[in-house]
Amino acid sequence: MKISPLAGKPASPAMLVNVPRLITAYYTDVPDPSVSEQRVAFGTSGHRGSSFGRSFNEWHVLAISQAICDYRAKQGINGPLFLGIDTHALSIPACASALEVLAANGVDVMLAENDEYTPTPAISLAILTYNRGRTAGFADGIVVTPSHNPPDSGGFKYNPPNGGPADTGVTGWIEAKANEFLKSGLKGVKRMPFEKALRAATTHRYDYLNAYVSELDQMIDMAAIRGEDIHIGVDPLGGAGVHYWGLIGERYHLNLTVVSDEVDPTFRFMTVDWDGRIRMDPSSSYAMQRLIGLKNRYDIAFACDTDHDRHGIVTHSEGLLPSNHYLAVAIDYLFQHRSKWSKDAGVGKTVVSSQMIDRVCARLGRTLFEVPVGFKWFADGLCNGSLGFCGEESAGASFLRLDGSVWTTDKDGLVPALLAAEITARIGRDPGEIYRRLARELGDPVADRVEAPATPAQKKMLSELSPQQVQCTDLAGEKIQSVLTKAPGNNAPIGGLKVIADGGWFAARPSGTEDIYKIYAESFQGEDHLRRIVKEAQAIVDAALAAGKNGQQSQPEENA
């Protein structure tokens, strides 16, 4: 992965998106459904794209919104739909387009009071709160967000009545229906003028901000944070929770400082990410330079991404704590300090998350539920309490309330962040110091993630590999214990493969949004061993792809 010389430096004026042109392209450019990049495509977190590339335009939003209405009718979902947006430039026009369709279809829509930005977890919480105890008339939701993607991006994701991200069966149906609408020139899409939609009897206002903030003391020991006078620094990164943090500090009387409450759709206040692009990723040290530079002013500091479903923890001892490190610390702490949780509650992790989590779970005597990438796999376990904590290596997590009941079934960046303050208050050490203790006791892994170009055909081959296509028996000098193409927790395809040896592992999977594949690697035997794993992983993937290509030589060209 080539690091840009601009990485970690303030964004220059030349990098900033031209917002008027972006919005104009949203309304004026029409996608061509015969071009794959311009069709609706749901990845692990909804449909994403840019109006500049005709991959996120008004037609996409109108088509997806009608498809969601049709899906609701098909499934008998007739409760309210909770609709929220983040601070990306395309989110406001996309929300307007969606409302025009939802209102025309007679859907009761819950918009934020005062047109407030709405974090993803606030939508999930609203859905679950409304549906609690119901047997019919269930609510669902839409979050208009491309997460931490660059400022020219738009995104649109659907959360069904379980409050979590929609599973592939749901998104596949919505995607296919939306593409039918695109192909037909939006024939069958119901729509009314925006002003009429706003005044419709089915359009309502909902106080997401106070509904979310008022219940946080059911998640976090606010009294401990307050009692120790933990000085907290928060950088919302110009995201949807920008007005939540001040209210959290005020309501719970915390010593909390918001580093910046600036909202700017160009995100000009960011330092640029590893590839020289602006990206609001709280797990990236390049994007987090502002808060890292302020770490010594606070006892603990943290940031969230644009829709506030991911966290980044900045400590005195370590600076920005790698997300896998913090997941391990949070799990170790929570299962020793949440006495009302079920003794049978397990831990959910994705196949590309650290094996340090496995070791922490083993010591705690907790069951590990390992699934493919995507938070949707955790929704049922969080709902029924069989999973106490769920996390993924990209800094997304959620966990149960203090009493062991469900909080959110989508990722929540705010509560893991606040948990870091609780940990610091109750243990007297920051999460970075606690991780170093865990590493001394359980092993000290090193990890890396690399990316490589891949054609759509290669990505398809990688996602369909079988264990038999891995011909070697050793990985970095150790016998390979297992080759997985399905996740151990639920036997679902991981969309790639994972190779495990005693002292390390790697996983390779295609990107859902770019023409690349990613190799995740970890070693418990140091940097040299890690480099060997990465090098051999690349060779294993290359050989498997070559074998897959050779196996297709006799196939017709359109199937190759």
Automatic annotation (TrEMBL):
Cofactor(s) listed in the protein's UniProt record: Mg(2+)
Domain (Alpha-D-phosphohexomutase C-terminal): residue spans on this chain: 486-536
Domain of life assignment: Bacteria
Residues covered by the Alpha-D-phosphohexomutase alpha/beta/alpha domain: 40-179, 211-316, 323-438
Alphabetized CDD domains for the sequence: PGM_like3
Enzyme class name: isomerase
Listed EC numbers: 5.4.2.2
Keyword Magnesium in annotation: yes
One Pfam family per UniProt: PGM_PMM_I
NCBIfam families the record matches: pgm
Family that this chain belongs to: Belongs to the phosphohexose mutase family.
PANTHER family in the record: PHOSPHOGLUCOMUTASE 2B-RELATED, PHOSPHOMANNOMUTASE 45A
Protein name, entry field: Phosphoglucomutase
Species the sequence originates in: Undibacterium arcticum
Record lineage: Bacteria, Pseudomonadati, Pseudomonadota, Betaproteobacteria, Burkholderiales
